[in-house]
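Now for a typical sample entry:
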Amino acid sequence: MLTFNKTYFIFTILIFLVEVFIALFVNDSFVRPYLGDVLVVILIYCFIKSFVKLPVLPVAVFVLIFAFTIEFLQFLNIVEKLHLQQSKIARTVIGTSFSWIDLLTYIIGIAIVILAEKYWLKKEIKD
């Protein structure tokens, strides 16, 4: 079950670098708020697949549930409740504002993962 997959790890690094670039240099009304959220679930998926050999669908569903959980914690203002509002890292990683649109972007990101796995990487989705 534990493994190291170089391809997924390279994807993880590349997507992470894109996310950092977006966070540091992009301040628009589409790429940062929407494309960044699509990419973050793909980033988490690739990170998990870098180290764990599991079928596509369980990992994709786990990542989607994880992203939804973080978004729900934003709805509950968890950063403030944990008194972490002064922590830039906590505000960045956990986030501070709930958005229904973010849930849709996460679904789009996971749909991209599943389609890429099925058609580009030719993996069996249900195994």
The chain is about 70% helix and 0% strand. The chain has a mean pLDDT of 92. The helical segments are 6-25, 31-51, 56-75, 78-81, 88-93, 100-120.
